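Board notes, transcribed. Complex of a protein with flavin mononucleotide.
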Amino acid sequence: MSSPSPPPPPSPSSSSGTNLPSRILILYASETGNAQDTAERTAREIRRRKGRCLVQSMVEFDIQQLPHTPLLILINSTHGRGQPPPDMVNLWSALLRSGLPSDILEDVHFAIYGLGDSSYEKFCYAGKILARRMISLGARLLTAPASASAGGSVNGTTRADGSQALDERFGRGLYISGQERREQQEDDIDGDEFGETACLAWGDERAPEGLEETYLPWLEKTMTAMLPLLHPPPPLNPPPAPITALPAPLYRLSPVSRAAPLPAPPTAVERNGTLDLGPAGGGGGGERKRVAQSLAEGDDVLQPGWVWTRLAVNKRVTDDGWFQDVREICLELEQAMEYAPGSICSLKPQTSEEEIQAFLHMNKLENEADQPFIIQPLDTDFLAEIPLLTVNGMGGLGGEEDQEVPLHLPRGKPTTLRRILRDHVDVRQPPRKSFFEWMARFTTSELERERLEEFLADSVHPGEIQLLVGLVEYKTNLKIKRKGLLSSWLQDLPQGYRIPTGVDAPTLFLPPQSANVPVILVGPGTGVAPMRAFAEERIRQGQGKNTAIYFGCRSRQHDFYYADEWEAMRKAGVTVRIAFSRDQDEKLYVQDLIKEDAKMIKEWIYDHHGNIYISGSSNAMPKQVRSAVAWSISDESGVGDITREEADKYVEDMFMSGTRGGEESW
Ligand SMILES: Cc1cc2nc3c(=O)[nH]c(=O)nc-3n(C[C@H](O)[C@H](O)[C@H](O)COP(=O)(O)O)c2cc1C
């Protein structure tokens, strides 16, 4: 499919010349934190490259500002059966209002990353419908590389003349037409038609490399497309800070009292009136009391819109001998609250005291654990060393807003480390990649840092070079036995021996120009080693299903290299074909398997201009592989439409020109 033409950049502006996008807005909607983590990671990358950005939950976003948001990154997950996370619902409902003009978002340039799990029927559906709706309202999906020249600005004339009218239209009463909703829901959206360069990607938790597989390429495209549109664009020189450099802080922990630490925080039961705050010592006086009161009230625990309930019934309803402990729970509301059958009730759990204590002890933080502080946003203007512009009509993206404290943490209320651990974070959560990134930034041990960096590295076998070396043995013309210098030397080396090693850039095995060009890898014998590396890289790029590998060996028992890896490769979508030449009466070689797969070979090589890579013996094998490919794409196989002669020429041209994958994609 062909890609759409790239959207125009935010254009040089109006007479006022003031509507220049100086910040990127990242909006996320997350249920269990992955999308939020991805949004924050994206923000760190923008800031590392000296761009400005603001991260906000969709639930907090003022929808009326959407048409005035020139540079937007959307990151959201999918829940339920293809539903948006609750935090996206308001924005989504507003976007579905009937009668919205089809150009209402024409000034918005956006990138989108959806998170999901392909084992669900509606994979990343919330992200897909969001992308589709944004486009249908005139928003422009960015493509990389940006065709924009740096320093563009948004069409101020449109905004200056039309912003109020747009606000009114967005502010009108909520009415979603059934037809419109159906169209949104029933559309079969996969997003592929936007082309490979579009800044749109769907993250799959099931993928072998998890979300990383699509996130990293998407991030790179989005950075390339969006950063030059900032005004002024981030400087290319000096280069961005190293990925493991500690970024500037976004928040300050301001102590609220210099007095002695408060007693241990109240539990939910204590909060109900039995808490003894102890003597107000240390001269903290009124302030200390006020803080203690706030903590006792649990001000820092309740999220906006939440209420306190009291546990009235907690009864086991399964028999003692039954394998599962099921509870009937009744909560009494302390404040009136409306709900209907089908409403979703969320409860905020607490980390156990033992776990908190273990955490504090391990990190030597026991002395600080009960010191009250307030988390405050820092002035983030210093994050990018770029002069800030005064921007009109930018919905707070011009620099007047700092990065707000994330919603899951207490905002503007006194809290303590112990309470953060108890009420606001999940110390049992398996660590995400970003956690290791932070560890690498904070560790003071060189060895630990090296290990973490290897772990984070973007390569399949970080910190290793894997080789498959066959011992070279031969007889000279005078029948004298000889061994190859390197291979025989390696044979007897003890583990731990230091070897001078060099690495040069690839010259023969160049990847196709676009990752989604199909690739066929043929590697009999030890020739399989580079093909295995190639296949692993293709899987990492999310192109497993566009990759086939043909491996040939003598027998399953004697020389079946990487025997325990092929199944995993198959599971990652790769077509793995193995020819054991001596395991049956009739000899079977890679070229025979290629012929068996004539239909696929013809589609990949002839119809979709795929690449073939061959490695291994330089004797008859490469020629026989070429011949098998030509046969497969010709009318001789019954699959192709061209004559054998034409097919031979086609394949010969491929090999002579060393063509690296056609421009066309699937
Ligand atoms: C109850 C539940 C339902 C889900 N439903 C879907 C779904 O319909 N489609 C999908 O692609 N992913 C689905 N997922 C996977 C999530 O989108 C995925 O775990 C994502 O990383 C969560 O991101 P978040 O932590 O930001 O909410 C579901 C996950 C859960 C726990």
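The mean pLDDT is 80. The CA atoms of residues 176 and 182 lie 10 Å apart.
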